[in-house]
Amino acid sequence: MNDRPDDLRDAISVCEREVEVIEAVENGMWTPELSRHTADCPTCADTARVAKLFVLEGAVALEEAGAAMESPRLPDADEIWRRARVDERRAAVERALWPIRLVERLAGGVAVGVAALIAWWGVPYLESLLAPLAAPVTEGLGRMATALAPSVSETGGSGLPPELVAGTMVVLGLGLLAVWLYRTWVEG
Amino acid sequence: MKSARVAWSGEAAGGDLSCEVAPRAGRIDAASGARPFDATGFRDFYQATARPLWAYLSRAASPDLADDLVQEAYYRLLRSDFVPASDAHAKNYLYRIATNLMRDHFRRAGRRTAAGEVDADPAPEGSSDREPVAEDTPGREARMRRDVRRFLSRLSPKDRRLLWLAHVEGASHREIAEVLEVQESSVRVLVFRARRRLAAMLEDHDVGPEVLA
């Protein structure tokens, strides 16, 4: 210790009587000898000053804390407990439902994809099947498609056939209906 | 002041935090994964620790912030996976949560404002205008109390926390190290230096016990 520079030695010097000094500050029981020592020892003098400050301020702060606890600003323990339990249950439900929500989203995506594929590949096949009955139906679909997308019919066939567009919309609608039914079933 | 000191594990468990105190019956069951508190246990713990925690936060930060941080600290303690070996252990962890919340608050406050406009380590609010004692209260002690908040406000937040935990809470170096997340071996030096800085201010203003008059 003696070969340390002065400032470092001072930085870590402590007195073995510090605890006695702190107790004397707190309970006011100073012996003459301890008083003399505190006045002469820089470490103990610092300790006494700081301890005195915190004796005073600590008491004030605890008094204020008591008033704060009584005021409506702070909830009581039961309220904090309830809030924590509610949030814990909510988090547990979310964790349990996470796989279901994932499957739900995948199912919706698959339904839309399948509907699109059916619309893209299946319409000619359906047309051939329904050809005998197609005339009134396709005429109706065509009118519906024309009403919804007049620019398509006006371009004279530069876009998709209106029957295809209407048929795709019907299939997509059925797909979304399937998703909605599945969600209702899951939540039910 | 001794009556105002809240027992830490150093006092409650023979001075050795490494000695795991057996959990109270029905309160902690690590094998079954039960939460650390039941409603009654938490209420008791809250009653025992909320006031000193509020006092700590009100002086390390501000009374208004203390209101918010006390609630949040207990909430986070309940939501955490921490399973304490004893109430004293839980208290240590609670103070650590509260200290980190305080730091996060000041860090956010410093980031939100323009550079140089906010002191990210503010003094306790009301420190400059609070009158803890009525003006007609006589004596040196009354004068000291009026100046106390001003002296505390001149300390850095870290020094305030260190000295509060050491002097008001009576925490051991190990407990201070756990709460403030510093090396235990450095706590002694940190406390010594913080005490020196504060004592220098107090000496300049002739503040101290009568033995130093």
Q: Care to give the gist of this entry?
A:
The complex is a heterodimer of chains A (188) and B (213). By secondary structure, chain A is mostly helical. Helices cover 84% and strands 0% of the residues of chain A.
Distance between the termini of chain B: 21 Å
Largest interface pair: A-B, 50 and 53 residues
In the predicted model, the low-confidence regions of chain B spanning at least 5 consecutive residues are 1-6, 9-30, 113-136
State the secondary-structure class of chain B: mainly alpha
Uncertain stretches of 5 or more adjacent residues of chain A:
1-11
Output the number of helix runs of chain B: 8
Rg of chain A, Å, rounded: 42 Å
Termini separation of chain A (Å)? 77 Å
Relative helix content of chain A: over 70%
Biggest β-sheet description of chain B: none
Q: Name the overall outline of chain B.
A: globular
Largest sheet of chain A: none
Question: Top keywords for this entry?
Answer:
heterodimer, A: 188 residues, mainly alpha, 84% helix, disordered N terminus, B: 213 residues, 8 helices
Give a structural overview.
The complex is a heterodimer of chains A (188) and B (213). Chain A is an all-alpha fold and 188 residues long. Helices cover 84% and strands 0% of the residues of chain A. Chain A is built from seven helices and no strands. Chain A has helices at residues 6-12, 18-27, 32-40, 42-70, 77-148, 150-154, 162-187. In chain A, helix 2 packs across helix 4. The longest helix of chain A is centred in the middle third of the chain and has 72 residues, at 77-148. Chain A is rod-shaped and about 120 Å long. Mean pLDDT of chain A is 79; it is low at 1-11. Chain B has 213 residues and is mainly alpha-helical. Chain B contains eight helices and no strands. In chain B, helix 2 (39-60) runs antiparallel to helix 3, helix 3 (63-79) packs across helix 4 and helix 7 crosses helix 8. The two termini of chain B are 21 Å apart. Chains A and B meet through helix 2, helix 3, helix 4 and helix 5 of A and helix 2, helix 3, helix 5, helix 6 and helix 8 of B.
